[in-house]
Amino acid sequence: MAQINNYGYEKLREYILSSWNYIEVQNESGIALKRFGIADGLQITRNATTQEIEYKLVITGDATFLGKTVGKSVLLEVATNGSPIATEIFAPFTFESADDQLTIIHKLQVPQIV
Q1: Cα distance between residue 111 and residue 8, in whole Å
Q2: Taking a C-beta distance cutoff of 8 angstroms, is the pair 35, 59 a contact?
Q3: How far apart are CA 107 and CA 94, in angstroms?
Q4: CB atoms within 10 A of CB 94
Q5: What's the confidence (pLDDT) of residue 27?
């Protein structure tokens, strides 16, 4: 089996940065509450030292989330529909007021170092 070299991993990271640009916030059962892209405040950064790609999203208790519980987020490639690429499950958080704020962070490492 062939090994992917540094150039190959760099091309994979470039593809991920340019194509995997959506995070969908879901309740604990996996029901979608809202999907965010870069235009909606999703921040995507890359750390060249660790080969990590970080997706960061800060959500407030606006009308979309007020009274709702968030329990997972999913990384996607498309604005609607699509298949999950990566899923983060976290302690459930319920938005009880408009002042509530939740920060969600997904980290990918290409290649993953174990």
Answers
A1: 10
A2: no
A3: 23
A4: 15
A5: 97
Q: Where are the domains of the chain?
A: 6-109
Burial of 66 (0-12, 13-18, 19+ CB in 10 A): middle
- Residue 73 CA to residue 58 CA, distance in Å, equals 12
Which tens digits make up the pLDDT trace of 17-76?
999 999 999 999 999 999 999 999 999 999 878 889 999 999 999 999 999 999 999 999
Copy the structure tokens of residue 38: 């870069």
For the beta carbon of residue 45, count every other beta carbon within 10 angstroms: 10
Asked if 71 and 26 count as a contact pair (C-beta separation under 8 A), the reply is yes
Cα 47 from Cα 53, distance rounded (Å): 6
Name every residue whose Cβ is closer than 8 Å to that of residue 35 and which is 6 or more positions away in sequence: 22, 23, 24, 25, 76, 79, 80
User: Strand, coil or helix: what is 25?
Assistant: strand
Angle at CA of residue 70, ends 73 and 50, nearest 5°: 35
Which tokens go with 91? 């302690």
